[in-house]
User: What shape does this take?
Amino acid sequence: MITNPGFLSSTEWVISSIDFHDRVELATDNSFARLLRIGFADCSLDSGLHHVLRGDPSDIDVLTLMRCRLVGIVEAYAVSLVMHSDTVFSGVRGALWDTLRVQNCVFVGNTGTAMDISGDALAGVVE
Assistant: This one.
């Protein structure tokens, strides 16, 4: 579980080159550490990524996934989601409040919907 419990917690996290075999959970409980910028690069998320939402849905400002292998479902609530050169097996779902940017990703498998994204005034690029 990745969380921001302390009053002076960093608001920018970069996680890189790690293979996660169990589900990764993001918990944004700390109302003093908001507008988080969380990035995963060159990671494998075999059992997915789940944002445990307990507060404001805009706790995460930008969630970035870059060159990751996403085997399990990715589920998050954020202002913006950026995906670049990821391989997605089980799909991505969640709610965004501003921007979706998906570039050079590969969606494989036949396990349901590739992307299920909702949001108000959502803009962006999927290419």
